[in-house]
Amino acid sequence: MMLEREVVVVGAGPAGLSAALEAARAGASVLLVDENSKPGGQLFKQIHKFFGSRDHRAGVRGIDIGAQLLDEAQQLDIEVWLDAEVCGIFNQCDVWIVRDKDRSVTVRARRIILATGATENAINFPGWSLPGVMGAGAAQTMINLHRVLPGQRFLMVGSGNVGVIVSYQLLQAGGSVEAIVEAAPRLGGYGVHTAKVRRAGVPFYTSHTVLEARGTDHVESATIVQIDSAWKPIGGTEKELSVDTICIAAGLTPLVELAFAAGCESFYSPLLGGMVPWHDRSMRTSIPSIYIAGDISGVEEASTAMEEGRMAGLSAAHSLGYLDHEQFTTGFQAAEARMLALRSGMFGQKRRDAKAAIIAHERG
Amino acid sequence: MQEREQREMELKQSGAPSLQELHESPCYQLPPKERRALAAVIECIEGIPCNPCETSCPQGAITVGDEITNLPVVDLEKCTGCGICVAACPGLAIYLKKYLFKENLAYIAFPFEYLPLPEEGQTVHMVDRLGHMVCDGTVLRVVKIKKNDRTAVVHVSYPNEFYEEVVNMQRLPRTD
Question: Are strands A290-292 and B105-112 parallel, antiparallel or unpaired?
Answer without folding.
Answer: unpaired
